[in-house]
Amino acid sequence: MLKRKPPDTVAAIDLGSNSFHMIVAQIKDGHVHVLDKLKETIRMADGLDKHNIITEDARARALDCLSRFGQRLRGMPRGSVRVVGTNTLRRARNASAFIYEAQEVLGHPIDIISGREEARLIYLGVSHTWADVDVRRLVVDIGGGSTELIIGEHFEPTHMESLHMGCVSMTRSYFADGIITENAWQDAYTAARLELRPIAKLYRDVGWGAAVGASGTILTVARIVNMMGWSDAGITAESLQKLRKAMLRAGAVKKLELQGLSKDRAEIMAGGVVVLEAVFERLRIERMSISDGAVREGLIYDLVGRIRHEDVRRRTIDALMQRYHVDAAHATRVEATALRLFDMVANDWGLDEDHADLLSWATRLHEVGLAIAHSQYHKHGAYLLRNADLPGFSRQEQRMLATLVRAHRRKFPIEEFEQLPDTIQREHVIRLAVVLRLAILLNRGRQQEHVRINSIEVSDTGLKLDIDADVLESHPLTHADLENERNYLKVSKIKLKF
Questions:
Q1: pTM recorded for the entire structure
Q2: Are the C-beta atoms of residues 378 and 369 closer than 8 Å to each other?
Q3: Residues 122-177: pLDDT tens digits?
Q4: Nearest-angstrom CA–CA distance, 332 and 115
Q5: N or C: where does the chain have the smaller number of CB atoms within 10 Å of the terminal CB?
Q6: Is 168 left (phi over 0), alpha (psi -120 to 50) or beta?
Q7: Helical H runs in 258-394?
């Protein structure tokens, strides 16, 4: 297997709906030291047309920014950089085409993450950059297209939500002409309160000892109320009402004269303040402190965890196994066989540690669908993994994992692999599926593996398995399974010989 040396410098990029943020940090003695921070306002949320297609102007702005970010990342090895897309790329119908271009410019893979995964990363970023006190806290982050609300203690979130409202989307819906009227404000405020309604009581019942705000809108509001003399520490409910009145008196974005408000931020400020006002009212917040940490910092600490083998994804897999009563002993046997076979083919097939992790997760979850029904359980498992909220996983990772589980038995579903957008990724997942199928086949008796593959010879056309002839003769069922597998794999263009 191709093993990578742990990097001492890491980077993270948050492709947000309003701004793109990059952070570069050095890891020394297990501690993170920030070396560089870059931010550019892109307004991706404004760059979606009525059909949720990224416009040419928005695409050009984004790629220009990423080419500059790419210069800073040049020379950084694979696995040392994490790049994620959030709300706008979740919504964009042509996100795959954009990501393909963006990856070419950056030289590093880009993941699209779910709203709840974004919330988890925000909490991780805040909890590592804000004083760790023994108190439950509420974290609020208003982005361009979504708002995340998280309750947690220390470094662990306990409740996470991502709501479909942000400073850009709300401004676009209610203040698109730049005019700030009482009626428009009230309409936007009502919409925000409705969005908060399903979670407000639950969050109030859970409670918290401190409210913390993060990211552009909240940082800007905190700066304004401080410089205007309305609050001397963070944001208070009273200072927020003074800001609202000042914006309504101005009546238009062009007439806003608030200390601490930049021209770029002014254009989307009304939508952001409305959302924050609704959050304060529905959750009954009196004062909110401010944190510099957000998604990008969370990505850094999450990446450091992976490097130090403290990967939240492994905890997610274990939790799923428990929840759906997966046979852990059998999964462990299959995993051991799969990783042994993986080592035999990894170098020839260009597979690395990330692929080994994906294979390991698939072995542990290949029977998760049995919790629904035995018939077609591989399809049930794939559906669960494709649609569940899986902490630590990107949408692409979930899709690949679901494809492997779908493909682990019966006919080889080549059409499922063809739906994976990346050609190289598709080839790797097909190869992992072959390894997974062989591992499951060899453990079909659900006991200690009796038929052992001594070695595997990899050629341009397929695989040749070296198995002792007398072993096959004494295990006719396994011999028959291998014969069937040879026929199943014909559609994958991988010829199986033994």
A1: 0.89
A2: yes
A3: 999 999 888 767 889 999 999 999 999 999 998 999 999 999 999 999 999 999 99
A4: 32
A5: N
A6: alpha
A7: 263-266, 269-283, 295-307, 312-323, 328-349, 353-365, 377-387
